[in-house]
Amino acid sequence: MVGEFEVWAEKYRPKKFDEIINQEHAVERVKAFAQAKNIPHMLFAGPPGTGKTTLAIVLARELYGDGWKQNVLQLNASDERGIDVIRGQVKEFARTVAIGDVPFKLIILDEADAMTSDAQQALRRMMEMYANVTRFILICNYSSKIIEPIQSRCAVFRFKALEDVHVRDFVERIVKGEKLKISEDGINAVVRIAEGDLRRAANVLQASSILKEKITEDVVYEAASLAKPQEVKKMLEMALSGKFLEARKILEEMILKKGLSGQDIISEIYKQLVGLELDDKDKVHLIEKCGEIDFRISEGANELIQIESFLATLMLYGKKK
């Protein structure tokens, strides 16, 4: 890696409205507010790594210029989510007058859906009281966890997961900027693992660059500590063809020797089930079984035993076929 260790998700964060990828429907509205120097309270909702916090910071830069940090309070509500923070730190900042031409300050509450109910009720009242000197931007993954009175006070912006082509463009920008050596299958692996999350793509790529100078598919999956699709597919095909012990051996290799998470393996199994040579009816039953095992593992069941039971079920389906 070139230079000091940096978090590339931050380093390559867009600095202008035009650089934000695949969220034109939200960007255009926010840009219009910024040009008018007058914005409402706003709620940004959508999957992680799609540009919600980035858009809020770009808006702050557009409004206040180089002195934006003096007029912006940015909190991660999942860490500081209690009513004491809202009544103390947020209230103290909200009641003061902005510095500069813009007549209001900006408070950005990241992961607002993690705020307690009492904190949200306190925030609701504060949004009314200090609306003349402060605007709030609430950022969340699930808008349903924000109480209705707050939602009704905000202009709501829905963000969508990024398509693979946009994630690839972002990855290639980092590769060029950091002068990385990466194979085509390595890029494909990063894009696949990211699942539309640019932050995850950047972090996986950075972790991979630390492991090896030449980044390949194997290096990416090792850095991400995820099961390789080819391995999982081979395991399923062996179980389906009646080779249970061979399939079990691959599973033990992944869990015991590589230390992979059972939930990550079951997640990859779910993705691979669609491509198996089985009737649609059988696939439906297996997906249902997959969901049941995922729930059991999340509740603390033994990962190895649970996934072995799925392989056994798969072998029985193969014999029936």
Description of the molecule:
This protein is α/β, with parallel strands linked by helices. Helix content is 57%, strand content 9%. The protein contains 15 helices and seven strands. It has helices at 8-11, 24-36, 52-64, 83-94, 117-129, 148-152, 164-178, 184-194, 198-211, 217-224, 229-240, 244-257, 262-273, 280-298, 303-320, and strands at 42-45, 72-76, 105-110, 134-140, 155-158, 181-182, 214-215. The strands form two sheets. The chain has a five-stranded parallel sheet, sandwiched between helices. Strands 6-7 form a two-stranded parallel sheet.
What's this model, at a glance?
The protein is α/β, with parallel strands linked by helices and 321 residues long.
CATH superfamily heading of the largest domain = P-loop containing nucleotide triphosphate hydrolases
Average residue-wise pLDDT:
86
Domains, number:
3
Output the CATH topology of the largest domain: Rossmann fold
**Largest sheet: spatial strand order:** 2-3-4-1-5
CATH architecture of the largest domain: 3-Layer(aba) Sandwich
How many DSSP E strands?
Answer: 7
Q: Choose one word for the global shape.
A: elongated
Classify the beta-strand content into a percent band.
5-15%
Rg over CA atoms: 24 Å
Poorly predicted tracts of residues: 1-5
Write the H/E string, N to C. HHEHEHEHEHEHEHHEHHHHHH
State the main characteristics.
321 residues; alpha/beta; Rossmann fold; Helicase, Ruva Protein, domain 3; Zinc Finger, Delta Prime, domain 3; 5-stranded parallel β-sheet; 15 helices; disordered N terminus
